[in-house]
Amino acid sequence: MLGSLNRFDQQKVIEEITFVCNNPNSCSSVKHSTLPFKRLFRSKNQFKSYHYLIDFKITADNQVVIHDIYFDTNATGPKPRESLERNMLYNVKRQGGRFNGAWDSDELQQSKDSWGLSGSGATQVSNQHAAVNGMQNSLNKATWLMGAHLDVAYPKDSFDTYTLFHNPTDRILYDVVECIFDKRKGTKSQNAQHLAAIFFQSQQQGKKIKWVVHSQGAIIFTAALEEYAKTHTFKLTSQQVAVHSPGAYLPRLKSAAARLGMLVHQANSNPFDLVPNLAGQNNLSPSSLVRSLKFMGLTFLGTELTSPHTLPYLGLESYHTQLRLAGNHRRAQDVLNYIEKNT
């Protein structure tokens, strides 16, 4: 398996092999680190072992012989506690129709049922479409949500599978810290380093990949492009990206992508969404500030149907309908007033 891994995964597995050779009688642990500083230092691995198992034996002359490398099925996949989920690739398969909007809980449930995991994990991007999810997304949520975002990002494409680069959540505090790490100019998070290695692997293989990134996913994607540029000169001309509700500063993302020859599609964001407006610093006008703060409660505490951030943005008329059908007539009127003022 080692030969099929990207450089980031290879490095992690080699570190595990080195540990095994130096400590052949030690049991591997998959527990989360209990050291607060280590968990805050997001450029370091947050777990005591990586999500691969090393199959080895000790010979009579006390030599360690490595037989094979496997996914650790106890570490991969959805977990009852979301903070135990790992940053890795998953293949996702369509199980229902395309996302064309969700107006009530029944249609939302249909969207959630439209995608499901295929297998326990993947070592590389094997589909033409791929996605990076935002913060506070369990693996199960990221699976269907990013499928919906891909449907909206590439409406003319017919596809039944995609590869999810899962950005696991570690509760809001650590997720925010991770965003801060990736927005800095220095060392990037494990997520960004991993994604940069996937860029290189996919480009080497000549794969044409259409990405969509949402929320924190745009921050990770920007950081990965910058991380990639530190050590690689290969252009990423076979890859492109659609940006939805970015937590990243768009000019920075576009600049990093342009230097590497990657196409960036027109960003798609709800004008009432605080994340791209304020967190991403993409619209700091007084009117944007008022709109964002007015809808802040729905952004962070609303449902998928009322939040201006979670579901793919299909236009103000669609968002107005979502709010009205959800019974939030006050905010629906705010959206209607904005439509009338700006049309």
Following the backbone from N to C, one meets helices and strands in this order, namely HHEEEHEEHEHHEHEHEHHHHH
Q: Averaging pLDDT over every residue, what do you get?
A: 88
The amount of helix comes to: 40-55%
Largest sheet: 7 strands, mixed
Task: Give the termini distance in whole angstroms.
Answer: 57 Å
SSE map:
Blueprint: H1 7-22, H2 36-40, E1 52-58, E2 64-71, E3 88-94, H3 105-112, E4 115-122, E5 129-132, H4 139-153, E6 161-166, H5 171-183, H6 190-204, E7 209-215, H7 216-231, E8 239-246, H8 250-259, E9 263-264, H9 274-279, H10 286-294, H11 296-301, H12 316-325, H13 329-341
Helix pairs in contact: 6-7, 7-8, 12-13
What would your notes on this structure say?
The protein has 343 residues and is α/β, with parallel strands linked by helices. It is built from 13 helices and nine strands. The chain has helices at 7-22, 36-40, 105-112, 139-153, 171-183, 190-204, 216-231, 250-259, 274-279, 286-294, 296-301, 316-325, 329-341, and strands at 52-58, 64-71, 88-94, 115-122, 129-132, 161-166, 209-215, 239-246, 263-264. Helix 7 runs parallel beside helix 8 and helix 12 runs antiparallel to helix 13 (329-341). The model is unreliable at 29-43 (pLDDT under 50).
Task: Summarize the entry for a quick read.
The chain has 343 residues and is an alpha/beta fold. Helix content is 41%, strand content 17%.
